[in-house]
Design brief:
CATH superfamily: Ribokinase
Helix content: 25-40%
Shape: globular
Strand content: 15-25%
CATH class: Alpha Beta
Number of strands: 9
Structural class: alpha/beta
Largest sheet: 6 strands, mixed
Oligomer: single chain
Number of helices: 9
Order of helices and strands: EHEEHEHEHEHHHEEEHH
CATH topology: UDP-N-acetylmuramoyl-L-alanine:D-glutamate ligase
Length: 270
């Protein structure tokens, strides 16, 4: 049976991140993607120029209807723009998704620096979301917000392990893409173990949507029944190849090649 992934996230009009990247990723990894859209963004590779959030009750209704009919083997949570949407999504998870693994990507800032989470929502997010997560996937700036401490080095990663566990998530992938240097080090922090994934950095400006893509790739693996560490390892390799083969679109932070796992069909003549 195909792994079913419900994606609860914002829409990216440029197609590189958010719902669009999530659907591409789950499909490329042979899963079945469903969605509950939490926000509409007007953006391209150069930045985010507008955000429109639907009513929180409508976000919860999307989740309820999909879960009641089709069901899910994993739920991926992305952009939750404001307090109302955070509360609605948390309530829906508690009411309709008991026993379903949840991968949460705490989307707070876009690649270009635009805020994607309203400032007054941070404390509510910190209180409600981590304890619902099977896995959270913060990058270092997001971890700094969640933990209330600087996160800018490998030493900061190591020193934060106990604080990360105290957030309440069953596991956390503390991503190291924002570290300086030629190596990228991601830490999978579980209750009793810490697993490091270390890879050489791929020099590219085409990294828009890497966080969304990684979390959805992990969710797809979890939906297929993979052990968490295996799902994380596969997802990292999927994202690395998607960066390496990026199509080179746009003037800013370009999108990845989400379809690199799909066998190519002959192109139509132009």
């Amino acid at each position: 049976m195909v792994g079913r992934v419900l994606i609860v996230a914002g829409s990216d009009s440029g197609g590189g991140a958010g719902i669009q990247a999530d659907i591409k990723t789950v499909t490329a990894l042979r899963g079945y993607a469903m969605t509950a859209i939490t926000a509409l963004t007007a953006q391209n590779t150069e930045g985010v120029f507008g955000v429109h959030a639907p009513p929180p009750a409508f976000v919860a209704e999307q989740m309820r209807l999909v879960l009641d009919d089709i069901g899910a083997d994993c739920i991926k949570i992305g952009m939750l723009h404001n307090v109302g949407v955070i509360e609605a999504v948390a309530d829906a998870l508690e009411a309709y998704a008991k026993g379903v693994p949840v991968v949460i990507d705490p989307v707070m800032v876009a690649k270009g620096g635009a805020p994607l989470l309203e400032p007054d929502a941070i404390s509510v997010y910190r209180e409600r979301m981590p304890r619902l997560a099977t896995l959270m996937t913060p990058n270092l700036p997001e971890a700094a917000v969640l933990l209330g401490r600087p996160m800018a080095s490998v030493a900061d990663q190591d020193a934060a392990v106990d604080a990360v566990r105290a957030l309440g998530s069953a596991a956390v992938l503390l991503k190291g893409g924002h570290l300086e240097g030629p190596e990228v080090r991601d830490l999978l922090i579980e209750a009793d173990t810490v697993t490091a994934f270390q890879n050489s950095r791929i020099a590219s400006r085409h990294t828009h949507g890497t966080g969304c893509t990684l979390a959805s790739a992990i969710a797809s693996g979890v939906a297929d029944g993979m052990p968490l560490a295996t799902a994380v390892a596969r997802a990292i390799e999927y994202v690395r190849e998607a960066i390496r083969t990026a199509p080179g679109l746009g003037r800013g932070h370009g999108p990845l090649n989400h379809g690199h796992t799909v066998r190519s069909f002959p192109r139509a003549p132009r």
